[in-house]
Amino acid sequence: MKKRVQEASEIKRGAMLAALLIGAFIAFLNENLLTNIFPGLMREFSVAASTIQWLSTG
After folding, report:
1. Using the 8-state DSSP alphabet, how is residue 46 labeled?
2. How much is the pLDDT for 22?
3. CB proximity list for 48: less than 8 A, separation 6 or greater
4. Per-residue pLDDT tens over the stretch 1-58
5. What is the spatial distance between Cα 16 and Cα 18, in angstroms, rounded to a whole number?
6. Contacts (Cβ under 8 Å, ≥6 apart) of 47
7. CA–CA dist 19, 37 (Å, integer)
């Protein structure tokens, strides 16, 4: 009985770890893409870099 519970716990741990790693990768990718688009947004809206950074965190 305890062996089944331990196996189920390990499976849940692995799934949680996979979800966290995927989420971290997507957040990292999103941050890099957003940083590269800042100059274009600054030109399009005619605002300073600080304004674009402030708007992107909301």
Report:
1. T
2. 97
3. 42
4. 566 666 666 678 888 899 999 999 999 998 888 888 889 989 999 999 888 888 777 5
5. 5
6. 41
7. 27
Distance CA 9, CA 58 (A): 37
From the list 22, 33, 23, the residue with the least C-alpha distance to 56 is 33
Alpha-carbon distance of 24 to 30, in angstroms, equals 10
DSSP for 14-36?
Answer: HHHHHHHHHHHHHHHHHHHHHHH
The per-residue pLDDT for range 18-29, each reduced to its tens digit, is: 999 999 999 999
Q: With contact defined as beta carbons under 8 Å apart, do 39 and 50 qualify?
A: no
Rounded to 5°, angle at Cα 26 from 49 and 40: 25
